[in-house]
Amino acid sequence: MGKVKIKRKSTLIDMTAMSDVTVLLLTFFMLTSTFLQKEPTIVYTPSSVSEEKVPMNNLVTVLVSSADKSGKLDDPTVAEGKLFISFTGDADSTLSSEKIRGLMLDEAISVYNDQHKNNRIVLDENQKAQFRTTNMIGVPFASLPKVLSMSVTERDKFLGDMTNPEVGIPIDGNKNRDGRLNDFQIWLKAIYNVAQRINNDQTEGLTPEERAQVSNLYTALMRKGQGIAIKADKDTPFTTVQLVFDNLQTMKLNKFSLMTALKSENEPTN
Amino acid sequence: MAQIEQSSGGGKKKKGAQKKMSIHVDFTPMVDMNMLLITFFMLCTTMIKSQTLQIVLPTNEDVKKEQQSQAKQSEAITLILDTEYNGDKPRVDAETGKTIHNIYYYEGIADTTFSTSKYLQKEQFIGNMNHEAQGIRKILLNKNKEVMAEYTKLKEQWKNKEITKEEFEQAAKKNASDSLKTRPVVVIKPGPNTTYEGLINAIDEMNINQISRYSIELPTHTDTLLLKHFEQQSGETIIRPTIRTNSRAAAPAAAEEEETNS
Fold first, then answer.
1. Closest CA to B221 of B92, B121, B80
2. Chain B contact for A11, CB < 8 A?
């Protein structure tokens, strides 16, 4: 009997083509996508036919958290309606996000301290630096020093816990117009003041380019209503969002935008 | 592909010719690395670019009655929004998987004598079907047909490249606020159970139908009265308990009675 010889085949596979494909895919992803901004909670915005893009620069985003969807909580609504705020400056670094956040923080703190003469808050340089590098934050002013002293991981964990009563910018007591502003209104006032003051050329330490940039922010905010965008979940009750609207109206910011996803006109609405 | 064959190119081997060499580059690690990078990009980035919807709200300070702008009765249409709930989550349609929103609408002044059957009618957001407006869109379209006729013409011109996009947008804006045409005034009243999506849908319908005059208000006692009567007549449950009883917002149903536009 003759032995059957099994030919040994080489197991080498040519990977060049595969490599080509993956590089192409990689290029595609790198060019078309934008990085996710770190946000404490995920919301699914409703869709609309509006084709206006969210501005990349000079934007204040107000995030309204939705009710808990994981089903782990006994009362999912405790997680609802927490407010977070995020400031985006100019990507071209004439007036970077860091700088804008610094200006806003200083202004907001001074407005707050003006109203709460007995419990002033004081932030050190380190805490301010922490604030400048955080994309989105939402805590009462009284908790700011504590939260800004945390490490980044600790802070993310802290802000991500929607059941914590210390998370979310307080928005109650809107109707008390003559008295104190609530924390959310203080932020809005700070935004308004910063935009207007620099527009009137009164802030020291800014280069002419930066000044022009803030003036753009002012125009976007006050005239066109593109400066403030509200981001809320589609299943959030209107009453919760209405509260945010109401506060904006009280602060005379009657023009603003709502963040939505795109859908076609022919698509059946719900 | 990845190997470079170096052959001396002829039959005979010359003296001093170099040895046949095969240079093989293994691309597997390269592919591995690329795959990792792709995974990273897919997880950390988003392709969805958000859109924005601009809205302008009036001041929320008390405005004197004389200063309130009055709409003509024939032009006014009021939409009361409502979202159906299943437990504490919005009820979704089993087929389409979308939330069910109801709209109760009336034209002109609220008819509290219920003299005609049109004191309140029920509609839904259906959108277009076979390129025909359906549901509430059809009603709004009819109300605003003078503007929409012109708008369709403009759109046609733009599609035929007779005018540029900018010209089209400008003309459309001018057309939507053309005071010579009969244009409706829409009052959107989101009820206490309406979700944010319901409101966005309603604003969307305004944009689709080129309605330039609309306002967002809270429902009044009159509206509740109409809903109650409608509920009795149709036998449907319309007024459900407010889902967010612990909501920090004041319940819109308790809003003060306002002067109806007349």
1. B80
2. no
Question: Domain span at residue A222?
Answer: 58-262
Calculate Rg over the CA atoms of chain B: 31
DSSP A94-155: TT-HHHHHHHHHHHHHHHHHHH-SSS-----HHHHHHHHH-SEE---GGGHHHHHHS-HHHH
ipTM over 0.85: no
Is residue A18 within 8 Å of B31, Cβ to Cβ?
yes
When mean pLDDT is compared across A29-38, A95-104, A156-165, B232-241, the lowest value belongs to: B232-241
The tens digit of pLDDT for each residue in B37-75 reads 999 988 888 776 778 888 888 777 766 666 666 777 778
Shortest Cα distance from A30 to chain B (angstroms)? 7
The CB-side HSE value for A12 (13 A sphere, CA atoms) comes to 10
Window 189-248 of B: residues touching A by CB (8 A cutoff) are 190, 192-201, 203-205, 207-208, 218, 243-244, 246-248
**In this structure, how many other beta carbons lie within 10 angstroms of the beta carbon of residue B157?**
14
pTM of the model: 0.78
In order of A16, A23, B37, B44, B188, the CA distances from B27 in angstroms are 6, 12, 15, 26, 62
- The number of domains in chain A is 1
Task: Judge residue B239's burial from the number of C-beta atoms within 10 Å of its C-beta, 0-12 exposed, 13-18 middle, 19 or more buried.
Answer: middle
Tokens of A95: 């007036």
Cα–Cα dist B55/B155, whole Å = 24
For residue A201, is it within any domain? yes
User: Tens digit of pLDDT for each residue in A111-126?
Assistant: 888 888 888 888 888 8
